[in-house]
Amino acid sequence: MLGKAEAWLADTIERLLTRADEEEAANPTVGKQVRSTTTRGKNKGVVGLVRRRMANQFRTYYRNGYNDPEALFNQRLAVEVIGEDAYRWLDADRVEVINPQQYRMSADEIRRRAVALAKHRNFMAAFWHGPTL
After folding, report:
1. Cβ(23)–Cβ(1) below 8 Å
2. SS3 call for 75
3. pTM of the model
4. Which of these, 54, 110, 127, 129, has the minimum number of CB atoms within 10 Å of its CB?
5. Pairing mode, if any, of strands 47-55 and 33-36?
């Protein structure tokens, strides 16, 4: 009975970890190659590496959780374009990660983590705070 419950829990955790991994792979963080999705102007179609990520200084009206500085639409990215000396500063919600599959974990690694979390005695604490795997 306990083995069946652990198997079900491992499957559920694996689905959650897979979804979180997909979102993390598509998130433009430092070191990933991105493409600008703007349709006009000098940043149209710009491709480069993200070198810096910071809060958008032009959106500073934070109140009651509205315009959270950690939200993707309130982040600015310094993108290094090959052949240019200066960074291009782009809004994080106006770029897409090029080939996000290369930043994903393997299915075996996700399954191994899910099984380890399912066997953890207090799996919810381990899930949110991260167990030592």
Report:
1. no
2. strand
3. 0.74
4. 129
5. antiparallel
Query: Cβ atoms within 10 A of the Cβ of 114, count?
Result: 21
Nearest to 94 by CA among 43, 38, 25: 38
Report the alpha-carbon angle 16-26-20, nearest 5.
Answer: 10
Beta bridge partners of 48: 34
Q: What is the pLDDT of residues 57-76, one digit of tens each?
A: 776 665 555 666 677 777 88
Sign of the C-alpha dihedral computed for residues 129, 131, 132 and 133 taken in this order: negative
Residues 29-64 have pLDDT tens digits of 999 999 999 999 999 999 999 999 988 777 666 555
- Rg, Å, the chain Cα set: 19
